[in-house]
């Protein structure tokens, strides 16, 4: 079902899949079958060649590598939330793999971002000779059907890039813009409004939202691409599982309220930390002096310096719920997580619970003094108090 643009995000999360309510259960059932009976009516039989374009899709299923009820429901909701036809995958990286399989570029212009995406690019370099260019490469280096892959906000820092500017750069060369919007799910950012050709998400983060689902999503406003992506996925085999998509649907119901609260918590924490770090002449023994003794820098879109108003237009409802800090010394970065009570020391992000990661634990390329923080739904003042205690401890106060 296509819902009109002025229907709110949470309403879409709760009702975009109403069309799939073919049983009376209010909570959608979990379907585990991998195979589905064909119709008893010979005239209703749809041959395989017509499967993807069949009018019956998404309520007719044959084999779960092609489609099945729970992932289809998950995709139906996301199609409404993302303003483009959504296709789900077994992970964020398999979604990127599918995107590059679709576009098969000769060159890809990409920034630092999530290190795993560079792993996928390296696979393509091995298979196709795909050449990696810097994100800010000269536009003349890009040719028709090449790709700019823009992660915004970017992992691990949580700072943002101007989608419209990169869309213009790509399109001026006949290239395509893929936006990895993992750090700013619907409600915070719609990359299609600023010219993205393909939007990608690691759904393992905010879509799942409870640190218990691995999945990825691509969204496109081009019907031909959507059809090709579905056909490709049939052979890539990288479909999302039944259990995951069932959990995913349950999680999408609360996406907007979760993300709004996480975004607000983050803005408050970042603003407090940033002010404390830049407080002039803090009193000896104060929280500010402890923070200034050990903390080097805070990174987040809310404290990012930008030219013009692109950032507030791109993210009008708040910024992403992930930020990063660097400590003055690597040893303090190593120690900070074990001094915290509410922030669990683990990788990943986007769950209801706050996490912190000494980022070098999972990313070999990053500054060893950097910690990435994924802010959850706890009361922000409790999170602040936890951080204050840890910073004071590290500063010997
Ligand atoms: C920005 C970004 N893109 C893609 C991925 C990969 O997603 P997944 O772990 O679901 O494969 C991640 C994972 O952390 C990510 O942060």
Automatic annotation (TrEMBL):
One of its GO terms (molecular function) is carbon-sulfur lyase activity. The modification N6-(pyridoxal phosphate)lysine is found at residue 205. The keyword Lyase applies. InterPro entries: Cys/Met-Metab_PyrdxlP-dep_enz, PyrdxlP-dep_Trfase, PyrdxlP-dep_Trfase_major, PyrdxlP-dep_Trfase_small. One of its GO terms (cellular component) is cytoplasm. SUPFAM superfamilies: PLP-dependent transferases. Keywords: Lyase, Pyridoxal phosphate. GO terms for biological process: transsulfuration. Its cofactor is pyridoxal 5'-phosphate. Belongs to the trans-sulfuration enzymes family. This is Putative Cystathionine beta-lyases/cystathionine gamma-synthases. It comes from Penicillium brasilianum.
């Amino acid at each position: 079902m296509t819902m009109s643009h002025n229907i709110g995000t949470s309403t879409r999360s709760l009702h975009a899949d109403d069309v799939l309510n073919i049983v009376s259960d209010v909570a959608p059932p979990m379907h585990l079958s991998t195979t589905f009976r064909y119709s008893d009516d010979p005239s209703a039989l749809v041959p395989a060649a017509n499967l993807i374009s069949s009018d019956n899709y998404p309520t007719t299923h044959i084999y779960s590598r092609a489609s099945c009820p729970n992932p289809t429901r998950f995709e139906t909701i996301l199609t409404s939330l993302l303003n483009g036809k959504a296709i789900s995958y077994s992970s964020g990286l398999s979604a990127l793999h599918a995107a590059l399989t679709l576009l098969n570029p000769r060159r890809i212009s990409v920034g630092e971002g999530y290190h795993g995406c560079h792993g996928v690019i390296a696979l393509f370099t091995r298979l196709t000779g795909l050449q990696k260019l810097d994100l800010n490469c000269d536009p003349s280096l890009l040719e028709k059907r090449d790709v700019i892959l823009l992660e915004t906000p970017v992992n691990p820092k949580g700072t943002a890039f101007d989608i419209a500017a990169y869309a213009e750069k790509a399109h001026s060369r006949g290239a395509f813009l893929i936006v990895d919007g993992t750090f700013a799910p619907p409600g915070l950012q719609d990359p299609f409004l600023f010219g993205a050709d393909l939007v990608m998400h690691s759904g393992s983060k905010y879509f799942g939202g409870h640190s218990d689902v691995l999945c990825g999503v691509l969204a496109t406003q081009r019907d031909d691409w959507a059809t090709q992506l579905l056909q490709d996925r049939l052979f890539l085999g990288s479909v999302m599982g039944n259990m995951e998509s069932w959990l995913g649907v349950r999680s999408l119901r609360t996406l907007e309220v979760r993300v709004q609260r996480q975004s607000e918590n983050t803005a408050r924490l970042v603003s407090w930390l940033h002010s404390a770090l830049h407080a002039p002449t803090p009193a000896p023994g104060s929280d500010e002096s402890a923070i200034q003794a050990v903390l080097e820098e805070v990174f987040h879109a809310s404290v990012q310096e930008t030219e013009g108003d692109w950032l507030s237009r791109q993210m009008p409802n708040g910024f992403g719920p992930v930020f990063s800090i660097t400590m003055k010394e690597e040893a303090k970065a190593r120690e900070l997580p074990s001094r915290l009570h509410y922030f669990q020391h683990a990788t990943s992000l986007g769950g209801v619970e706050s996490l912190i990661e000494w980022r070098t634990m999972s990313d070999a390329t990053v500054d060893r003094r950097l910690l990435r923080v994924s802010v959850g739904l706890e009361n922000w003042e409790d999170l602040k108090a936890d951080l204050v205690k840890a910073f004071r401890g590290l500063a010997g106060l």
